[in-house]
Amino acid sequence: MAGVPNTLNVVTSFPFLVVGVFGLVLCFHGNYFGI
Q: Transmembrane ranges (predicted)?
């Protein structure tokens, strides 16, 4: 991972990916997590 030029780009966008996936899961499952 150290030699890849886009490493910083991937690391900084990773939280957005997690939030996006979490949002999709909430949409598909409804209030699955009780939020």
A: 12-33
**Residue 31 structure tokens:** 């209030």
Distance (Å, rounded) from C-alpha 19 to C-alpha 26?
10
Amino acid present at 17: L
Q: What is the 3-state secondary structure (H, E, C) of the chain?
A: CCCCCCHHHHHHHHHHHHHHHHHHHHHHHCCCCCC
- Whether the model clears a pTM of 0.90, i.e. scores above it, the answer is no
Retrieve residue 5's tokens: 């030029």
End-to-end CA distance of the chain: 35
